[in-house]
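quick one before i forget lol
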Amino acid sequence: MSHLPAKARDAVARVASRDYRLHRDESAADGVRRAARGRVEDALDRLRAGSWSDIATAVHDTRKDLKKVRSVLRLTRG
């Protein structure tokens, strides 16, 4: 990944932090927190980047992200 420009490396790292996989070097609790935080960040990014002409799609996708966060929280609470 060192061959990529800094902006591209940041984007790749951001996407990797939002995946629903536990990394080898993290605890389950840290992985769940990371995934949930990533989904919330994704939702906020989508709303910030959305144009008024496409606000319905941005809101819809944001709601889907928040539903994913809720499902992760339910799994962890048992």
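fyi The mean pLDDT is 77.
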